[in-house]
Amino acid sequence: MRNLYKMIFSLVLMLGVCFSSLAQNNGAIEKQLTEGKWINHQDGYVPNALGVSDKTVKRYKIFEFKAENHSFSMDSIKQRFTGHWTIEGNKIILKFNPKNVEHFSKNTNPNSASGPYWVTADVLDLGTRVGHISNDVLKFGSNSKYDCAHESSAVAGLRNFWEFTGFANVTPGHLLMMLIGIFFIFLAIKYDYEPLLLIPIGTGILIGNIPMFQAVDFNLKLGIYEPGSVMSYLYSGVLQGWYPPLIFLGIGAMTDFSSLISNPRLMILGAAAQIGIFVTFLGALYLGFAPPEAGAIGIIGGADGPTAIFLSSKLANGVNVMANGVTVKNLIGPIAIAAYSYMALVPVIQPPIINLLTTKKERLIKMKPPRAVSRLEKIMFPIIALLLTAYISPTSVPLLGMLFFGNLLKESTVTARLADTASNALINIITILLGISVGASTQADVFLTKDSMLIFGLGAASFVVATAGGVMFGKIMNWLSPKDRPINPMIGASGVSAVPDSARVVQVMGLENDPTNHLLMHAMAPNVSGVIGSAVAAGILLSFLM
């Protein structure tokens, strides 16, 4: 009996020692586990809010364990997950709580009024993970990519801060786009090239390419492509195409059509310059762009930024689905930047082409002064022109309707307050918003593509062809015109609708050849008709390709 008691006592003692040792071991593991934080530098994060990327990057993931209630949190940068932990022997068991998450995706329904993004809810359950501590590393067995190093809370905080700095997220593409933005601002300030456009666009390029942390299903609401951000809301005016009509309203309120009314035949030069649109359209098709994309690219040849934005927002918006089931590319940013860039460079691009295609004798031609235009003619013109162009191309009404409405406000003389608002405050505000949002859309990972480079090449070619087409048709018209009503072929170059820069180029070149030869009023006729022509061309392309 005594031997039995000894055996029971020895067994209890051994169990006590074992439990004591196990408790001490668990206590040591618990102490180590709850001191500081555990960090994993894991690959696999897609650096784009909508998951649009062909690469992944490494991001820090931080575990923090609490001793009080055996809870833990995992900050995966994109989401913060929580759960409870237990220790069984040397195993650490992590049980995650299910978490409600949101997924962001593009809204591929062009007729939806819910905005450019869909937000869908989901419940994510990471389940259970089992790990152990070895050499100050929290290991998860065969899932070595989850292994976490032990760091102090201060170090973990610094690493987390570093993740969100621009230095940690910068790429060569960001730096290149920043140089382009600075170059635009330089051109605007140093050489006065379209400063009202290039300074907002250049600043927008800088804003859009500030390197910030982005990841799929993670939304800081900062970047232009992040749903709900301020820049995203501003960019909706580009995506939905309502900035351009407001720009046209202001242009109409500032435009004097007298030169065109007094000499209607010069409208032909404005139409001739639109050859650049259709040549570029064919070139884009040849380079492999889909017809809607090629149509949006072609309008760059009209030298009209708002029209280019309007048409690309309808045809190349990254939303519309073609008959073959393929979604069109989003080319709004490259097209807008190309159109405005070449508009600003009109004083550089056009003079060599004009000199090449005209003789000294032709450049010295003086044109008959335009006749005076009555108030009734000025009032009737926007009404008749609206009805005529609308019947020819109803799809151009959003642009031309606002253009002629703005002009009627001006010429009626009884709505001076409205005309003043449209031609000053309104167009200035829209120009700022349009420029900054178009510039910001040139985010490096979206903008720096082969397609963008092709678009810039096609844009340059389209300006050359448009200018040459206008000049050559001017030569033909001069040859056919009566001797007492000659036409200086240089004014054909102003048929591109870069108002009023292309007309100024002709004026300057006329004065360089003959200080008494003032061509500005004559050049404004094809210049303003070019605005109308490019909008009509856009409407025709839209009706065929939509």
UniProtKB/TrEMBL annotation:
Major location category of this protein: membrane
Sample GO molecular function, one term: lyase activity
UniProt topology in membrane: Multi-pass membrane protein
GO cellular component terms, A-Z: plasma membrane
Keywords for this protein: Cell membrane, Membrane, Signal, Translocase, Transmembrane, Transmembrane helix
Compartments, as annotated in UniProt: Cell membrane
Pfam families: OAD_beta (PF03977)
InterPro entries listed in its UniProt record: OadB_MmdB (IPR005661)
Transmembrane annotation, as ranges: 173-189, 196-213, 233-254, 266-289, 331-358, 379-405, 425-442, 454-473, 519-545
Residues annotated as signal peptide: 1-23
Any one Gene Ontology BP term: sodium ion transport
Protein's name according to its UniProt entry: Oxaloacetate decarboxylase beta subunit
Source organism of this protein record: Ancylomarina subtilis
